[in-house]
Design brief:
By secondary structure, the chain is mainly β. It is 4% helix and 60% strand. It has 1 helix and 19 strands. The longest helix has 15 residues.
Length: 371
């Protein structure tokens, strides 16, 4: 990684010698002003002013020349005062061809985050990205062509077809896959983009005895409506248990008036695990969320969110219903603050045991300073 970082920074300096160089700093801090859990037949548990600054401070530099660009980002964990490496990559491009190497994410399909992305760190609307929603599944984040690896190399070419475009992409990524000779996982992607819709198809082999494939469609038939839907299949036979999973994604965004946007997101996933004795165990993972955002003016946004989350979805330990109301404020240039009041209602199978949570109230506040 040190060698990669050096190459990228050197590329940035070379490009900067004859082109545009930019740098930036972004600081994010999350504070739970109050976190109170009401338990059955037991006293509440509570905490106040809990801070979380893990990997939320970023320092980055980017440079671009005629045929090359480079980006290097560092993360600072203020909880432990340690420095880590964020996205670090360089791209060489000629015409419609691009060659990218480094640490980065590479996704194509629109995730409908126009409203959700404006909320700093406290939104509950997108617990997982496109793919299999069950935590720890090989099909998580299926359309990310780097597979979240520390090192990846991507080559892609965009063909112009009238007013439309066809993208062809191939990638290798350092997942220590376990093949006899090949030392990288690999994947392929093809995407067609027109004014009306985008169709994206991916195939990835992150590890030996695994495979992930998916097809995702984004369509915007009218200005006020956009829809995305997709399906993902994943196989994982690295152990004596054969795993087959599928996931169905659906997202809808409606903008009835310029100041109001409503976004619905959901995923249903299933993993069938067949052991050596032929016995099959099924595990489901599902979430569905709704975000409504109203822009009062250039300074204030109001938002309301609600959702259901299975215990097997990333970040969850119980089946939960969550809801929250909040605001995002831009008091001055470069500063954004999001705050919310969030309620969590656990859902239990059978009789709730004494001492377990009946309701949780959280008041998170997030600050972002970026320039």
């Amino acid at each position: 990684m040190k060698k990669i970082l050096g190459v990228v920074l050197a590329s940035a300096l070379v490009a900067g010698a004859f082109a545009q160089v930019s740098s930036g700093v972004e600081f994010r801090s999350v504070l739970d002003v109050a976190n109170v859990t009401f338990n059955k037949n037991a006293d509440p548990t509570q905490s106040y002013l809990k801070q979380d600054n893990k990997d939320d401070t970023h320092i980055g530099i980017s440079a671009a020349g005629k045929n090359v660009s480079a980006t290097a980002e560092f993360n600072v964990d203020l909880n432990t005062m340690t420095l880590g490496v964020g996205d670090v990559f360089a791209t060489f491009h000629v015409g419609g061809f691009n060659l990218t190497a480094g640490k980065l994410g590479s996704r194509f399909t629109n995730r409908m985050r126009q409203s959700v992305g404006k909320i700093i760190n406290v939104s509950i609307a997108e617990p997982v990205k496109y793919g299999i929603a069950i935590k720890g599944n090989v099909g998580n984040d299926a359309d990310n062509m780097t597979n979240g690896a520390n090192l990846a190399m991507i080559g892609d070419y965009t063909f112009a077809i009238g007013e439309s475009k066809l993208l062809a992409k191939a990638a290798i990524f350092d997942t220590t896959p376990g093949f006899p000779q090949l030392q990288s996982g690999y994947g392929f992607e093809a995407a067609f983009q027109s004014k009306l819709f985008t169709l994206d198809a991916v195939v990835k082999v992150p590890y030996a005895s695994t495979a992930v494939t998916g097809v995702y469609l984004y369509i915007a038939p009218v200005k006020m409506l956009s829809v995305s839907a997709g399906g993902t299949l994943a196989w994982d036979n690295r152990s004596s248990t054969e795993n087959f999973a599928f996931g169905i994604d659906a997202r809808v965004r409606v903008v009835p008036i310029d100041a109001l946007a409503v976004t619905l997101m959901g995923n249903y996933s299933n993993n069938a695990a067949k052991d050596s004795g032929g016995n099959t165990t099924n595990k489901d993972g599902m979430y569905v969320t709704l975000n409504g955002t109203y822009m009062l003016n250039d300074m204030f946004d109001l938002f309301c969110e609600a959702g259901y989350f299975d215990k097997d979805v990333k970040g969850e330990t119980n089946n939960n219903i969550k809801f929250q109301v909040g605001t995002t404020v831009k008091p001055v240039e470069h500063v954004t603050v999001s705050a919310a009041a969030q309620g969590v209602v656990p859902l239990y199978e059978g009789t709730q045991a004494d001492g377990t949570a009946s309701f949780q109230l959280v008041v998170p506040v997030a600050l972002k300073v970026a320039f």
